[in-house]
Amino acid sequence: MASDEYIVMLPYLAHGHLIPFLALARQIQQRTGFTIIIASTKLNIQYLRRSSVSVDDSNFPSHSSIRFVELPFCSSAHDLPPDTENTENLSLNKMINLFHASVSLKDPLLHVLHDIIDQEGRPPLCIISDVFFGWAVDVAKSVGAMHITFSTGGAYGTMTYVSLWLNLPHRSTDSDEFKLPGFPESYRFHRSQLHQYLRVADGTDMWSTFMQPQISRCLESSGWLCNTVEEIEPFGLDLLRKYLRLPVWTIGPLLPQAALKKPSSSHSSSISGQHAGKKSGVPPEKCLEWLDLKSADSVLYISFGSQNTIGASQMMELAKGLEDSAKSFIWVIRPPLGFDINGEIRAEWLPEGFEERIRENKRGLLVRNWAPQLDILAHKSTGAFLSHCGWNSILESLSQGVPMIGWPMAAEQAYNSKMLTEEMGLSVELTRGHQSVIEGKEVKRVVELVMDEKGKGKDMRKKAAEVRVQIRSAIREEGEEQGSSVKAIDDFVRTIVSKRGALTANQLG
Ligand code: UDP
Questions:
Q1: What pTM did the predictor assign?
Q2: Residues near ligand 1 with C-beta < 6 Å?
Q3: What is the Cα–Cα distance from 173 to 161, expressed in whole angstroms?
Q4: Is 246's pLDDT higher than 70?
Q5: Index of the ligand 1 atom closest to the CA of residue 255
Q6: ipTM score of the complex?
Q7: Is residue 252 within 8 Å of residue 27, measured between CB atoms?
Q8: Could you tell me the CATH superfamily of domain 260-469?
Q9: Probe ligand 1: pick from 12, 88, 302, 392, max atoms within 8 Å of CB?
Q10: Ligand 1 atom closest to Cα of 391?
């Protein structure tokens, strides 16, 4: 395989997308020696540079590894605050503006591509773009490159999200339950599983007018890459392949290498998974030292991902339920919805004396804003994860054999939670969204159920341990047989290389 080939990647402007793209770039680069060029806006490139440890960031056009190319972007031209180039801390109103504004990256990308092609003497082997960048299909066609869509989510979540946006099935029924095209006839979704913008989407609103054309263009790609593992999502993958009628390569889990190599152990000296620019009130080592004092599987880890927070009354009830349960916990805590997410935690958001009590009786640890999630999940004392069901969090949890409690918030998280609960038996859903009414006693019930050493808790942990083995087998490079994800990435590379000749001939013809 010629190593002087190159691929262009185009991630969406959100941390949860940039990081899997960077991991994918590394995977392909390491397996093939191809140059990978990641194109994004200035601030996102800065973030990627900070996040990458071993990538070569010398200027194009050296041929060594992964390079970054800046695409000019003026946020204020799109009614966005200055320097808004990422979804982080954006309200929904601004988030949709950013989606629409991202389409304006098309011309700068074309411009940059033409320069690169002039220097390289040929188009990239393919352009891999995010599912939100359907416009890149045109760009790829116009420069004679293959187009591949990369869905950073799982197969089931992607399938649900794609079909919901393309069909808006809840619009044609008054019932709370509805069928979804592409799913079995008897399968039902519930209106409460829809995020608020999808609930009101009618095909003419700002969300539909972005999502529908972008996602439907991606159906014209030559194939999809999916950040999942063949063995853990047979149902979702079967549906997705039938619906897309395209090759779907399962190349996950795209996680930091440390997450997959490290055995479930006690204290580790290297703190992995730190997020460029995120600050925590507790030094990462403290979390692990605290966990070292606990017994196996006895601690519940609670986090709502990189950008979510819950409502003030939800926060109060969560705290009450945790205190009433007999279980230990680490809670990554942020100010509730409506307050500065990076601000201080006020006493009135928690039961009186809560923090002092849990500190004294060593029952809980509150970590402001950000925790070393991967290390916590890999620790032997961690027995379950209360999560917003972001796909990265799910992969991280399952790769460590940790079952979950679902509290989905946005995007495709409710469908991820449904799959974990109904298809995999690896989670119990506690509630949904920022505004649901949740009582402390329900928190206590679910926490005790999942953390139980016997019964359901034990069953879930056993199943999660099996999934952990499946995930690790999927990325096995050596030994008796290569894992399914390793084979899939090799097959993907073989396919794009073999199609280059045909594509160039067509283009010329
Ligand atoms: N994360 C972390 N510490 C935290 C919160 C989040 O390391 O306190 C990381 C987590 O390990 C995961 C990512 O942030 O890699 C969150 O991604 P996910 O897809 O779960 O959710 P999102 O933030 O995109 O909603």
A1: 0.92
A2: 16, 273, 275, 303, 305-308, 332, 370-371, 373-374, 390-393, 396
A3: 18
A4: yes
A5: 15
A6: 0.99
A7: no
A8: Glycogen Phosphorylase B; (3.40.50.2000)
A9: 392
A10: 19
